[in-house]
Amino acid sequence: MDLTLPPRVTDRAFERLAEIAESAGNPCALRIAVEGGGCSGFQYDIKLDDPAPDDLVLEKGGQKVLVDPVSLPFLSNAVIDFSEELIGARFVIENPNASSSCGCGVSFSI
């Protein structure tokens, strides 16, 4: 794993987060975490959350994406995006550290 590069958030992901905050009527931050589990060994946990003091905060236009220090090495150089397709819309992570992933893209192995 290359631990030198932080994850990158696309404009499309920040725009979607701004839409969520506007519909909620208050600012919100998107937390991206990596946890043990899933069919491939690790899984992403993506949720709205409040910042913690030791989080890496990626910010644009007042929108924030949070990554905790434990998850950061697993997300080094990853791209956090928002995908809208006929089957649904969701935040997605293109992770160069993942050696394999499951079909749904939620779990991965390193």
TrEMBL record:
<dbReference type="InterPro" id="IPR035903">
    <property type="entry name" value="HesB-like_dom_sf"/>
</dbReference>
<dbReference type="InterPro" id="IPR016092">
    <property type="entry name" value="ATAP"/>
</dbReference>
<dbReference type="InterPro" id="IPR017870">
    <property type="entry name" value="FeS_cluster_insertion_CS"/>
</dbReference>
<dbReference type="Pfam" id="PF01521">
    <property type="entry name" value="Fe-S_biosyn"/>
</dbReference>
<protein>
    <submittedName>
        <fullName>HesB/IscA family protein</fullName>
    </submittedName>
</protein>
<feature type="domain" description="Core">
    <location>
        <begin position="9"/>
        <end position="105"/>
    </location>
</feature>
<dbReference type="InterPro" id="IPR000361">
    <property type="entry name" value="ATAP_core_dom"/>
</dbReference>
